[in-house]
UniProtKB/TrEMBL annotation:
Keywords: Magnesium, Metal-binding, Molybdenum, Molybdenum cofactor biosynthesis, Transferase. It comes from Slackia heliotrinireducens (strain ATCC 29202 / DSM 20476 / NCTC 11029 / RHS 1) (Peptococcus heliotrinreducens). Residues 191-328 form the MoaB/Mog domain. This is Molybdopterin molybdenumtransferase. GO terms for molecular function: metal ion binding; molybdopterin molybdotransferase activity. Pathway: Cofactor biosynthesis; molybdopterin biosynthesis.
């Protein structure tokens, strides 16, 4: 049995958070606001899509049977008896030896069974419109250039299943299916509480010994990116009472609470005792660098996550652990960021046995090979390095060094989990 104070693996931390969060309730949003969100129920089309058989090309609709003998040597001529634009309907009948000039999207005349595009049809007389005579030097395939009734969806058919993420094209698909209001899982309301008596709010110029609160902004950005609603709270000084009061207040009206700072073992690090005192402490330390000090627990049933104070450590804790929890609450089923393997540009020793996440840049050479170059400054106090990086390269647990050119796994944190590479 793992005690909350034991150091656990990143995978254990991820499993723990996923086992302790639940899908939120649902809300019905206008179609466009459902973009990127997860359908909470099966969504069915209210009609056939397409609603009627129509031409997929500008051309001529005819009885294919009339053209069975058509060839280059023996072209078959037909009379153009009508024109039908998109939006129009040809009510008449096409007799043998006749055809109808038709535009892309126009309803297929009832007795036509193929459409031939303009480009391969010759004009014998006239301008190709009604009253002209046109010639065909081949026979189109059955139902050629016809989009059929209900080809994409039948009336009543489920077009997006419960649990499916709605993409941009899905928004268009649902529009064609008449689904303009979509039940989706609610976005989690996330309180972000920066802890630290040394912090001042930007843009204030910090006095001696003080620094600006940058974590609050970064984590709010991360929350938004993960689909949550970020509620940035005021800075809380390093006292047990102030932090206890802030967490108690935040859990009352949020779905998830994130603190940054005060997560280690210093004299003024209070998130662990506060979670323990107010609720259930489930985890304090994860085998990763940056970001060893990661506190997680439940207070009044609400997940409370204490990220470390160092910016890169807080960022990694969010991306690699919290983000999964926030996504699970919104019904997403993909949790792993895509990864690639790349040759490291320079060998590295490993002095710390933790799994190390190097902030790094991936490039593709002319030979198509990926190379990863870790940033020269790997201090966990820096956001700027992450801004300039495009991946994190992983050095596994243990002390095994890596040699120049070795293949190393890189996670693309900016690429959504749904992408498969
Ligand atoms: N004796 C030890 N000391 C430390 C250890 C250790 O293992 N033994 N681990 C270090 C590591 S690694 C980290 S990460 C930090 C985590 O500690 P805390 O979560 O208690 O972080 P703080 O001490 O509160 O702050 C660390 C650092 O980050 C700055 N900070 C804090 N909040 C913000 C914010 N909102 N915006 C920008 N910067 C922030 C803070 O000023 C400190 O410089 O512990 C190490 N120590
Ligand atoms: O938990 Mo700390 O990052 O390794 O800066």
């Amino acid at each position: 049995m793992t005690a909350p104070t034991d150091m656990i693996s990143l995978e254990q931390a991820q499993e723990l958070i996923l086992s302790r969060v639940a899908k939120l309730d649902t809300e019905t949003v206008p179609l466009l606001d459902a973009m990127g969100r997860v359908a909470a129920v099966d969504l069915a089309s209210d009609m056939n899509v397409s609603p009627f058989a129509h031409a997929a090309m500008d051309g001529f609709a005819m009885h294919r049977e009339d053209l069975l003998e058509a060839s280059d040597e023996n072209p078959v001529e037909l009379d153009v008896i009508a024109e039908v634009p998109a939006g129009g309907v040809f009510e008449g009948a096409i007799g043998h030896g006749q055809c109808v000039r038709i535009m892309t999207g126009a309803a297929l005349p009832a007795d036509a069974d193929a459409v031939e595009k303009y480009e391969v049809v010759g004009i014998v007389s006239g301008d190709g419109k009604t009253g002209s005579r046109v010639s065909f030097s081949s026979c189109p395939k059955e139902r050629a250039n016809i989009r059929e009734t209900g080809e994409e969806a039948k009336a009543g058919e489920v077009v997006v299943s419960a649990g499916e993420r709605i993409g941009d094209a899905g928004v268009g698909f649902l529009a064609s299916c008449g689904v303009l209001e979509v039940p989706v899982y609610r976005r989690p309301r996330v309180a972000i509480i920066p802890i630290g008596s040394e912090l001042v709010e930007p843009p204030a110029i910090p006095g001696p010994g003080h620094i600006r609160n940058s974590n609050g902004y970064a984590i709010a950005a991360c929350v938004r990116n993960a689909g949550g609603i970020a509620d940035m709270h005021p800075i809380v000084p390093d006292t047990l009472e102030a932090l206890s009061a802030a967490v108690t207040k935040a859990v009352a009206d949020h779905d998830f609470v994130i603190t940054t700072g005060g997560a280690s073992n210093g004299d003024y690090d209070f998130i662990k005792p506060v979670v323990e005192e107010l609720g259930e402490l489930l985890m304090t330390t994860v085998n990763m660098r940056p970001g060893k000090a990661q506190t997680f627990g439940l207070v009044e049933g609400v997940p409370v996550f204490g990220l470390p104070g160092n910016p890169a450590a807080a960022y990694m804790g969010f991306q690699l652990i919290i983000r999964k929890g926030l996504r699970a609450m919104q019904g997403y089923s993909a949790f792993e960021h895509p990864h690639v393997w790349a040759h490291i540009s320079q060998g590295r020793k490993k002095k710390d046995s933790r799994r190390i996440f190097l902030r790094a840049t991936l490039t593709r050479g002319d030979d198509g090979q990926l190379t990863v170059t870790p940033a020269s400054n790997q201090s966990s106090g820096l956001f700027g390095v992450i801004q300039k990086s495009n991946c994190v390269a992983i050095m596994p647990e243990g002390f095994e060094p890596i040699a120049t050119g070795d293949l190393i796994e890189c996670i693309l944190l900016d690429v959504p989990e749904e992408v498969v590479l």
